[in-house]
Amino acid sequence: NLRRSWLLIFSFVFLIMALGWAFGQVSGFGNAGLIAAALFAIVFVLISFYRSDRIILSMSAAKEANPIEHQLLHNTVEGLAIAAGVPKPKVYIIPDTALNAFAAGRDPQHAVVAVTAGLLEQLDRLELEGVIAHEMSHIKNYDIRLMTLTVVLVGVVALMSDWLLRSFWWGGGRRRGGESRGGGGIMMIVGLVLAVLAPLFANMIRLAVSRQREYLADASGAMLTRYPPGLAGALRKISADNEPLEVANKATAHLYIGAPKQLGARGKITELWATHPPIEERIKRLDAMGETANG
């Protein structure tokens, strides 16, 4: 995951600099656009690495869980952190009735776990342990670094793509007296293609990070609790819950244990762009683990 983190960073930096080059060509700023994009990418990579957990918590309206009011939650997180061999992460509550949870941070020493109020209300103790164990596995496996980086970096690519598209409206194609013909026209086409496709490529990178890590976190979480039916039961309740998670968006959806309902995939085609594998398949695998353990 450390290697994948650096590969992820370089992929996004390449996309951002390509957008900066295209912006410089279209707007007439030339190499200044590329230099500005490089500086912009460096700054936001640093921000995403050191501050992204706070950004995500803010986006999710999460508040730190009171140790007295939410004693069971704190005890569950602490016990599973000990079992996983990682420091206890900070614990947050998302004031939402939907059933969901996520982990974020740059490493186990700087990790957070957030659960919705609805999850706490509707899950029993064993199901809650299953969810927290799943999130603790993300922390132990350094998935949180990969998933958290993508939230901010996808946003940066989308922002720069929007700037590039707006530059066409600012009259970049008319720069330098008719340079829009010939080579300038080709640059405009390249810029337009980059502006349209860069967010798509960024999203593909994000999805590539997400789906298989969910299967691994399910398996690792079940091994932590030694009770696969706990997580399987939690996933059944999450799947049956039709409440939309109001604070979720396309940038943060892949962080959650279950795809937020208003953003979930429908049909065979959209499943290719899903942030999570089918929840029915995840439950099936956990059930098989439980049968093996009982056998």
Structure in words:
- This protein has 295 residues and is of the alpha+beta class.
- It contains ten helices and four strands, in the order H-H-E-H-E-E-E-H-H-H-H-H-H-H.
- A four-stranded mixed sheet has the order 1-2-4-3, with helices on both faces.
- A hairpin with a 5-residue loop joins strand 3 and strand 4 (111-116).
- Helix 5 crosses helix 7 (183-225) and helix 7 runs parallel beside helix 10 (279-294).
- The radius of gyration is 22 Å and the shape is elongated.
- The two termini are 34 Å apart.
- The model is unreliable at 173-182 and 265-269 (pLDDT under 50).
Brief summary of the model shown:
The protein is an alpha+beta fold and 295 residues long.
Give the tags:
295 residues
Task: Return the string of H and E elements.
Answer: HHEHEEEHHHHHHH
DSSP strand content: 5-15%
* Category from helices, strands and their pairing: alpha+beta
Principal-axes geometry comes out as elongated
Q: What percent of the residues sit in helical stretches (DSSP H or I)? A: 55-70%
Strand order of the largest sheet: 1-2-4-3
Please work out how many helical segments DSSP would assign.
Answer: 10
The N- to C-terminal Cα distance equals 34 Å
Largest sheet: 4 strands, mixed
- On the 0 to 100 scale, the average pLDDT is 80
